[in-house]
Design goal:
Oligomer: single chain
Structural class: mainly beta
Number of helices: 1
Largest sheet: 8 strands, antiparallel, barrel
Distance between the termini: 44 Å
Shape: rod-shaped
Length: 285
């Protein structure tokens, strides 16, 4: 933008009005120039620059002023949805609202507990919505998600409720088609650090707080032509259990994760004392 024969130029006001949100403080005047020969204002989206050449009192004047915003207003915060929007890059610290990240699914293995607990499974999403700060290739983030963990009972055993306790006992003699499992639903709150090494390739280390809000058990078997089944509610699971989760792969795309659950699902006197480790695939971590 060029304009000649201005009586006076309060160019700091113009520069700041282009670069800062409406909620910013009123700018100060930096310099006043009478009858400049030329004024050029350049705005590339992140930096605003004003150049003035020549004036009534100083024909040799050559003045340059730049303004960079020091904050990002709420309506300028980018939203990052994997596969749809490329995350911002650069040296500055940027904030991102993220959604639909960390879809996972994998196998669950018992590390301690009753031997009748077989290979199980889990699935969920760590970030239904979250927020993160990024600088270059590093990111700190926190989110809210959900998931289910299903512990399979095998070796001809079934889950039964004995008073307030959940026990695992052999199925009746002669029973066939024996099936039993324990399902636990949780709200996930992961706090994660993500580091990229090359382009999108890197790792993520997270501590996940699991708020276990609904746990049930079920069993079924056949004796002759009769099928017996039962669903068990009112189990005394721990309200809060933490996990440690490591994911390696292409951040924002596909990765392989390992999750360690060091805290037992039930209070010691109310159910099986079981610790697990799981591994599987994570999409958009």
């Amino acid at each position: 933008m060029k304009k000649k024969n201005w009586k006076s130029v309060f160019f700091a006001v113009a520069a700041l009005s282009l670069s800062l949100p409406a909620q910013a403080l009123e700018p100060d005047t930096v310099i006043v120039v009478d009858n400049p020969k030329s004024v050029v204002v350049t705005d590339n989206g992140s930096v605003t620059m004003v150049e003035i050449q020549g004036s009534k009192n100083d024909p040799e004047l050559n003045y340059r002023y730049t303004v960079e915003p020091d904050s990002v207003s709420a309506h300028e915060i980018p939203v990052n949805i994997p596969f749809l929007i490329k995350p911002a890059a650069g040296n500055k610290v940027t904030g991102e609202v993220s959604a639909l990240r960390g879809l996972y699914g994998g196998a669950v293995f018992r590390t301690s507990g009753p031997s009748v607990m077989g290979t199980s499974w889990e699935a969920g999403m760590n970030h239904v919505i979250g927020y993160g700060y990024r600088r270059r290739r590093a990111e700190f983030s926190v989110g809210v998600g959900f998931g289910i963990k299903t512990l399979m009972v095998g070796d001809g055993h079934i889950a039964v409720k004995e008073g307030d306790c959940l026990g695992l006992v052999p199925a009746p003699e002669g029973a066939c088609s024996v099936e039993s499992r324990v399902n636990s639903w949780a709200i996930h709150v992961p706090v994660a650090y993500t580091q990229r090494f090359y382009k999108s390739w890197g790792f993520q280390l997270a501590v996940v707080a699991n708020f276990n809000f609904y746990t049930t058990a079920s069993m079924s078997y056949k004796l002759g032509d009769i099928t017996y089944s039962r669903k068990i509610n009112g189990l005394h699971q721990r309200l809060l259990t933490p996990d440690v989760m490591l994911t390696i792969g292409s951040a924002g795309n596909l990765g392989v994760y390992v999750r360690w659950s060091p805290v037992k699902m039930f209070e010691r006197r109310f159910g099986p004392v079981t610790n697990t480790i799981s591994c599987g695939l994570s999409v958009g971590f």
